[in-house]
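Please check what follows.
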Amino acid sequence: MTSPSFVEMRRRNAQMILDVVRRKPGVSRADLSREVDLARATVSSIVDELIGLKILEESGSKTSLRGRKPIGLNFKPNSKTSIGISIEDNRAQISLCDLNGRQLASQQVVYKAIDLDGQAAIIKLLEQILRTHSDFRRIYAITLALPGPLHITGSDRQNKAAPDRFAPLVTMLEGHFGRKLALATNIEMAALAETHAEQAECEDELLAFVRIGHNLRVTFLQNNAFLNQFSQMGGNLGELIFPMQNATLARLWEPSDMSGVSINELAGEPMLLSNARKAGLAVETLDELVILASKKDPIAIDLLDLAADGVAYGLASLINIIGPSRLILAGYLPDNHGSFLPRADLTTRQLLKKTNNNAALIQPIIQKSVMDRGAESYGAALFGLSLENILPPLKGSQRKDREARNSKTS
């Protein structure tokens, strides 16, 4: 029986080989062996496997200095595709990318509930995307991103179980594709898409990625990796109590609740819309609420300012407790309401001055995500490739690999 450590080592060796072939098209097996510092037999075995998977191809002959003509190797990024599916309560986003992580398609479907009709709508969109851009035979990886947290049933993400309300969907999709799905959370997949899009090097800095959706969630990255020790805070951030200090809040909540409300009750999409309707606004979507604010509706402006203040309260808490040097905000509000990020940034710094004696020394960067609404599904498609060590490493990771190889030869 092959040990898990051997399988992992072989995957990492395959990633190094793919990295070199990407950078040096037409490289021979002999040159490849020297480049990755592995035995020729090991390299040939892995290369033969990648050729069998149609990820690499041989490219005729390549003239060498000795006059011989070894066969060159090329990477085939279009030979396979990876699917990422991001699920929310009333919508799904599906992305497709090639083996280089280049996005080929991203589309959304809206449904009333994740019942049989909702599942059928997801399958219909999947089949439409595959007919246009790929086919079932070329699918290399499938990842399903869900609202967290996931139930941990093993040591890796493929052994995490979906929340009970999503279990029928997982069973249906696995039956449709005839394989197990990799599971992940939407917040982590959005963060993965962000780092891939901007090739962010967060080797020495602690980065907090904050997503404002149905709830306020956060994940942390350092050295281009997620920090699992803070995963519990990721789900609890939106439950922080925001002190009740506003006349609009006083109109919306009962006197018994006047001690404060959670950040999720201020900035989470369902509650924000519910608050708007309680205040007399006829809105069904955040689009409508933001449009009203752009038309100077005082209640809409007040509600969105309160959402920004609630998020700022969470950001200030993160900075005081954990101390990230950079915070990235993602979600509909920072993307579409122009004053949301400036207000959240200003309020965060004001709160830091009140709560931290060293506030003058704390200058975190607070910025908007470079990704759009499809970040979660795109990140899920990338994650499927990363599980197989196909995803091209980030710049920081490439530098580490080179330094490690140089240290061997010095």
Q: What stands out?
A: The two ends are 37 Å apart (CA to CA). The chain has three domains: 4-76, 81-180+374-387, 199-368. Residues 4-76 form a domain with the Arc Repressor Mutant, subunit A fold (CATH 1.10.10.10). The mean pLDDT is 81.
